């Protein structure tokens, strides 16, 4: 496999592999674009915390977003430094956090190995999974047309998905549904963590927008959205029952199956403005 540099037609995070195209009774050797997937180890003050399989783009944003959404830090300024190191096995993100965060990390240290599409691997207690979330006090209200627009227009910003067909995306959108920031990754949780990191670095006002994702709305997607301070989540696919209950408890608007002119609101319908 040969990684390729980003270009107008080949975004970073892609690789070229030799493949065989089969059509009917004919076959033809071709070069195919696939998404990069590498182990990314996250170390906090020298303490190994997690190994995630991720697309190696926007890793500083990923590290920040992961740290915030997993409750390892409370504020972006508690992540003092982030250095990405390449090694034969993959990549290591060396993160330096405040002494208070390091103490918290030692108390809840776990050996968590991430897999594509899995956000809770290695969590060692029910309390860690179902951690309490603050009820959203954001006044955010939107029209359903904005959710449809967010999901529809997000596709045009998924450069990696367009050439590989293998990545999820998470988008931070204006209240009218216009995408502002989009991040991609082979893992849906990773894409959202990257987006949360980008929002923090960009100084986004959480009450001034919504999040759209190309995946199902599982409980951890809802949790990460709530922790980011965003009150509206639109998903292309279905939610789970736990995600719905969690969204209701946190005061979020949760919509699933947002495709074309349809969608289903499972929680937070009071945040909808009648079209």
Explain the layout of strands and helices.
Layout: E1 2-3, E2 14-23, E3 26-35, E4 38-44, E5 47-54, H1 59-69, E6 79-87, E7 90-97, H2 99-107, E8 112-113, H3 126-129, E9 142-143, H4 144-154, H5 159-164, E10 168-173, E11 179-185, H6 188-202, E12 210-213, H7 219-227, E13 232-235, H8 241-250, E14 253-259, E15 262-267, E16 272-273
Parallel strand pairs: 4-7, 5-8, 9-16, 12-13, 13-14
Antiparallel strand pairs: 1-2, 2-3, 4-5, 6-7, 10-11, 10-12, 14-15
Helix pairs in contact: 1-6, 6-7, 7-8
How would you explain this protein's 3D organization?
By secondary structure, this protein is of the alpha/beta class. The protein has helices at 59-69, 99-107, 126-129, 144-154, 159-164, 188-202, 219-227, 241-250; strands at 2-3, 14-23, 26-35, 38-44, 47-54, 79-87, 90-97, 112-113, 142-143, 168-173, 179-185, 210-213, 232-235, 253-259, 262-267, 272-273. It has a six-stranded mixed beta sheet with strand order 11-10-12-13-14-15. Strand 6 and strand 7 form a beta hairpin. Helix 7 packs parallel to helix 8 (241-250). The termini are far apart. 44% of the residues are buried.
Q: Strand pairing plus helix content: what structural class?
A: alpha/beta
Return the average pLDDT rounded to an integer.
Answer: 90
Note the main sheet.
6 strands, mixed
**Element-by-element helix/strand order:** EEEEEHEEHEHEHHEEHEHEHEEE
Through-space gap between termini: 50 Å
List keywords for this structure.
275 residues, Ubiquitin-like (UB roll), six-stranded mixed β-sheet, five-stranded mixed β-sheet, 16 strands
